């Protein structure tokens, strides 16, 4: 097995397609196919903030569900959109408002299709993906070594939101502890969630959310090669979003 783990897309569909081309994928019927049968793995947060969240949903759905050519795990933004589609009382802010604005501009038929596809994508996908063939675990905001192979409410919160303390930073974001500093596992943990300028390698972990939607770049991590590949963002640069 050879995989390309793709960082937080956040509706940046043009950059995603450019990244696939940069990774050597060829386009067949509008989908990327690699001549060496590499498997794309999306690590969550495919929607919100960027310009093409609805198209990103449909694109990833075709790749993961219809064609079976890719894998996907959800992020916190995915979880919030899922709860919105279920009719839960969620606040349309922190990026969700851009996705719901796109969604409300669709016809009723298109709305039903997008909602069905997204909910099927979530329902059909694991909370995190364990891939023994490449000695890796793909989890949106990371996972502790001792939690790999388990699932409960605490682990779900960690995987979606990171090692949150319950406190807020001055800008309103949740305060998070740097769990990767304490990771001692021998499996790769590939994650995103927290924007960084460059892929961040700590112990056997790598954060590949290089903040495409905030104007930096979109990054993939290739296994077993242990290489990163990035393409530049077309979005305005927002410096304060990077740690």
TrEMBL record:
Residues 1-197 form the Calcineurin-like phosphoesterase domain. Transmembrane segments: none annotated. This is Bis(5'-nucleosyl)-tetraphosphatase PrpE. InterPro entries: Ap4A_hydrolase, Calcineurin-like_PHP, Metallo-depent_PP-like, MPP_PrpE-like, Ser/Thr-sp_prot-phosphatase. It comes from Halobacillus seohaensis. It holds the Pfam family Metallophos.
């Amino acid at each position: 097995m050879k995989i390309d783990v793709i960082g937080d897309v956040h509706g940046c569909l043009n950059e995603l397609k450019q990244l696939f081309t940069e990774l050597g994928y060829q386009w067949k019927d509008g989908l990327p196919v690699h001549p060496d049968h590499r498997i794309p793995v999306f690590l969550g947060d495919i929607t919100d903030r960027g310009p093409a969240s609805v198209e990103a949903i449909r694109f990833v759905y075709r790749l993961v569900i219809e064609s079976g050519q890719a894998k996907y795990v959800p992020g916190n933004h995915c979880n919030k959109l899922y709860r919105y589609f279920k009719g839960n009382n969620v606040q349309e802010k922190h990026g969700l408002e851009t996705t719901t604005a796109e969604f409300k501009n669709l016809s009723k038929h298109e709305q039903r299709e997008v909602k069905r596809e997204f909910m099927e994508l979530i329902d059909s996908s694991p909370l995190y993906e364990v891939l023994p063939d490449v000695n890796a675990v793909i989890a949106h905001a990371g996972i502790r070594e001792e939690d790999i192979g388990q699932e409960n409410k605490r682990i779900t919160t960690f995987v979606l939101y990171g090692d949150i303390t319950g406190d807020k930073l001055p800008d309103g974001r949740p305060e998070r502890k740097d769990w990767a500093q304490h990771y001692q596992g021998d499996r790769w943990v590939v994650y995103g969630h927290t924007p960084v300028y460059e892929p961040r390698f700590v112990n056997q972990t790598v954060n590949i959310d290089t903040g495409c939607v905030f104007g930096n770049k979109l990054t993939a991590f290739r296994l077993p090669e242990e290489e990163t590949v990035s393409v530049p963002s077309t979005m305005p640069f927002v410096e304060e979003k990077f740690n």
